[in-house]
Task: structure prediction
Amino acid sequence: MNFTRPRARLRSFAVVAASLTLALGACSGPVGGGQQKDQNKDRGSATSGTVNWWGWTPTDTATANGYIAQFNKQYPNIKVNFKLVSIPDWQAALTPALRSASGPDVFDMQPGSYVKKYGSFAEDLTPVMAKALGDDWKSKVAPAGVTGLTDKDGKLTAMSVGAVYSGTLWINQRLFDKYGLKPPTTLDEWDQVCQKFKKNNQGCFVQGAAGAGFDQDTLQAIANSVEPGLWTRASKGEAKWNEPGIVKTLEIWKQLFDRGIMQEGAVGYQQYPDANNDFLTGKYAMVMMGTWYTQYSTEKAMTAALKAAGVSGAQPFPIVPIQFPDVAGAGNTSEMFGDADYGLSISTKAKDKAAAETFVTWMTTSQAGQQAVANQLNDVPALKGIQPNFSEIKFVDPAVQEAPVKDLLAKVAPVEQPRFALLLQDHTDAFFAAATSVATGKATPEQAANTMRKTIEDAVAAAGG
Result:
């Protein structure tokens, strides 16, 4: 998502731990009594059954089905059905489904506000992690996949599949080469590149500014150019949301619209499918996306994405990640930020709960599952020590793409700034309101920042924080 994808980027209340512990014991060890037998029967078999998985990501079903195919090599008797729900529809669809008896057995969970909103529908997976990786399991997985998916009471609401990081643009290298252009490194250069594309009737940059999570990504990237780390400090309550650096961030955001860098009608665009499809079909040469977009650097994923975008007979083209420009002109590198892309939660109403645990455990903690994740180039694996097997990965144009992709994946390893993990839903709503009001001219950057500060401070106070 995020999500942003939505990404963009919810804690909850604990389930009675004792009943889960007994259930796990009944599954993993000899059955000793009638009560344990009944619990084991309720949980189903760990090696057979049906698991219905709902998610907003992977954003193409081919990736999800690829994971499932690898899983079925080891567990052929567990049928996993993946249901893709679009980001704009996710919240409206998930809540009633989780309350019903026919909802998902496994569902995607995003760090931050979603943990609070949906965590009560999820099992506590702490015992599952300990069973899979031992009591020291926290040392074996990326910290972002633990902190962001744990609620305020210490309940692990989901197990992280992998992390994603934002703060990059992706470009269509063929279009840049066609017009002899270099990736922009400043706001003025970005403006000049867009003017050149437009003179040739070629779209320049596209973003779904109707999506809160993706607006936040761009705002945080701008803020890191203005003053590195400012956005994170404000998210922690260590800086105010109307400080001069935040006002400056909103001023630059407005310039993206005033200068025509943002496409016409951006505030009515969704990132998926609108901006994504327009980039993949070649209408625009640049798009604001994070590391999850790395998957489309491969021939297989790019071909599937073009087909999904409705492009008939189109040839895959090389996409390349570039650093977000220093739009503030202050000489700052716009640092990247990220957290767990998504975790997999097990519904408290899952029908074949043991089979669901088997699938989630395989995806998030096994060498095979995490290698499958790594090789998709969609997420940076949660399990430490897993790297993409580049000998098995076929880029569209290896000479152009392999080095930038490897550099990007190496760059994110030390990233500490979070994306969604520190935020309440009220934060995201306030960011979106500020971004939209400034973009449409309904508020000045200073007015929007003042409103944003008050909204967020009121929400934090109401939440007891």
Remarks:
- DSSP finds 19 helices and ten strands in the chain.
- The chain has a mean pLDDT of 89.
